[in-house]
Amino acid sequence: MNKKPVIIDCDTGTDDAIAIIAALYSPELDLRAFTTVAGNVELEHTSRNTLNLVRYLGFDTKVAVGAAQPILRRTIIHSGDNTHGDTGLGTLVLPKTDQPFYNQTAVETIYEEALKADGELELIPIGPLTNIAQAIMVHPDLKNLIRRIVFMGGAKYGGNITTTAEFNIWGDPEAARIVFAAGIPLTMVGLDVTLKAALNLQDAADIRRIGTPAADVAADILDFMFERLGRGGEDALMHDALAVGVCINPDLVKMKHYFVDCECSGQYTAGHTFVATNRIFQGEPNCFVCEELDLPAFKAWLHGAIARSKA
Ligand code: BDR
Ligand code: CA
After folding, report:
1. To the nearest whole percent, how much of the chain has pLDDT over 70?
2. Which CATH superfamily, name and number, covers 4-310?
3. How far is the centre of ligand 2, averaged over its atoms, from the C-alpha of 135 (Å)?
4. Are 6 and 122 in contact (CB under 8 A)?
5. pTM over 0.85
């Protein structure tokens, strides 16, 4: 099998952690590195969570630390609403590894791996796009070295952090704009599909039954998500795992090619992904937008990936 060389750029995060587990056990992927960014919680936590998780499961994949702040906005951008708990993994506490982070920044790691993969590297950003945009700015030749970016973020319609913006894109709108303008093939796995990617109690029980440390981590996180739902928070939505799934198998969704940009200056709409759906302004298509989800196929893929931790 020809494995896809990929980097996952993450702000780990509850659903990021499940995406990472699915990716680690997906034979279709050649995971070159994880790069971390501030988002769901502060960079210190997103980085630690990623490193602890990957090492706890026995993988030696590089984890490189990235941006602590968005490109222009100076605020700390964690959600502050207990969506991911205080440190990002709900109530789960993983053993702390004493192994170090990779000795290069996220930006340099992305560039280094892009050069090595000779045009084949794919990026799967599942947090704010800060590292990706910075890498494009620092290394302008990167746009010819990346095969595709499949990112979780944005929405054709609606939002989850504001009325019109999805959290990852809202976290760094200027970075998103740089990525949309880069000329790299893009696939947007946004709320139009991820709001449909909810697991239920039965799915969680099936995952728990797998009986491995990886499945237990996923099931513990799902328990937190159900408790979160009970207090009025978000459902057990697999936003980020769906981006990994779509990178491996685009048939999990239906997508269409559109012109997409990010609203940076709107007083109420900053972080909104503008998808040119109407006939009057169409623009030159630059991004595949996922519009429909095959939920049973996605669930089967996710369960199958986690179950491979038995092997
Ligand atoms: C995105 O924001 C975060 O809460 C999730 O990890 C996901 O990447 C969904 O809007
Ligand atoms: Ca995320």
Report:
1. 98
2. Ribonucleoside hydrolase-like (3.90.245.10)
3. 19
4. yes
5. yes
Question: Would the pLDDT of 209 be above 70?
Answer: yes
Query: For residues 215 and 204, what is the distance between their CA atoms, to the nearest angstrom?
Result: 9
* pLDDT beyond 90 at 36: yes
Rounded to the nearest angstrom, the distance between the alpha carbon of 239 and the centre of ligand 1 is 6
Contact 302, 214 (CB under 8 A): no
pLDDT above 70: residue 8 = yes
Instruction: Provide the pLDDT for residue 79.
Output: 58
Pairing of strands 62-65, 29-36: parallel
Mean pLDDT over each residue of the chain, to the nearest integer? 95
> Which ligand 1 atom is the nearest neighbour of the CA of 240?
8
Question: Which atom of ligand 1 has the smallest separation from the CA of 160?
Answer: 10
As a whole number of angstroms, the distance between CA 6 and CA 33 comes to 7
Decide which of 198 and 283 is more confident: 198
| Ligand 1 binding site (Cβ under 6 Å of any ligand atom) | 13, 15-16, 40, 83, 126-127, 152, 160, 166-168, 239-240
Centre of ligand 1 to C-alpha 168, Å, is 6
96: three-class secondary structure by DSSP? coil
Q: What is the DSSP letter of 278?
A: S
Report pLDDT for 176: 98
Give every CB contact of residue 102 below 8 A, 6+ residues apart in sequence. Answer: 33, 62, 63, 64, 65, 109
